[in-house]
Amino acid sequence: MIETMSNDNLLASLRALVRESGCIEADLLVHLGEVDERKLFLARTFSSMFAYCVDELGFSEDAAYNRLFVARAGRRLPALIEAVRAGHLHLAGARLLVPHLTPENHLDLLAEAACKSKRQIEGLIARLFPKPPVPASIRKLPERSVFPLSIPSIPTLPAIAVVMQAAPTAAQRIQRLPTIQPLAEDAYKIQFTASRTLREKVRQAQELLRHR
User: Fold this and answer.
1) Per the CB 3.0–4.6 Å rule, which of 25, 53, 96, 192 could disulfide with 59?
2) Which helix (H) or strand (E) holds 189?
3) Are the C-beta atoms of residues 170 and 50 closer than 8 Å to each other?
4) Strands 137-140 and 188-191
5) Within 10 Å of residue 77's Cβ, how many Cβ atoms?
6) Is 29 exposed, middle or buried (0-12, 13-18, 19+ CB in 10 A)?
7) Closest CA to 121 of 105, 108, 107, 110
């Protein structure tokens, strides 16, 4: 049992599980890519591979989208899958890299992204593939609905008609995911292009305030 394992054995077992998870993730991506290529989801009466992953395999919408995105790229660039298998690249990092990978640059880019965190890979992409400054904008975010902590007892009501809507499909659910989250009644989003120095200052302030 895990409770009786020594500290050294526990850490060694954890590292082994991490290595195994990379192999399993890579095999999963290969299988997804092959099923997608053969369109076997049609025989299961699903309209898309995405719907098959969500409704048949039980993936979340995000996991289904990210895995399919990487699996399809892996069919063109097998080194991407092998980087995941070797534990040099996690799924989140692979998802970020895929739009920038080409047959000419993918080996160098995968090597440079090896063993980096998601944040480090974001910095790598920003350095190699810079985007133009974003337009300045200030706008109020949607207000958040506030619900009482305790719900008072509800008196018996007369019977009423209830109109039921058809459940959205898996593809519709992911399209309806909110792109922004409300902060508070008086919270605003300010968007502008910042220098690296300002970015680091903001990040430092976030770390100092994290406990609050």
Assistant:
1) 53
2) strand 188-191
3) yes
4) antiparallel
5) 18
6) buried
7) 110
What residues contact 37, with CB distance under 8 A and at least 6 apart?
Answer: 75
φ, ψ for residue 139, nearest 5 deg: -150, 155
Instruction: Give the list of residues 6+ apart from residue 115 with CB closer than 8 angstroms, or none.
Output: 88
Q: What confidence tens digit (pLDDT) does each residue in 93-109 have?
A: 999 999 999 999 999 99
Say whether pTM exceeds 0.70: no
> Residue 4 — φ and ψ, nearest 5°?
-95, 0
Mean pLDDT rounded to a whole number for the chain: 83
DSSP secondary structure, 85-148, as one string: HTTSS-HHHHHHHGGG--TTTHHHHHHHHTT--HHHHHHHHHHHS--PPPPPEEEEPPPPP---
What span, in angstroms and rounded, lies between the C-alpha atoms of 86 and 23?
7
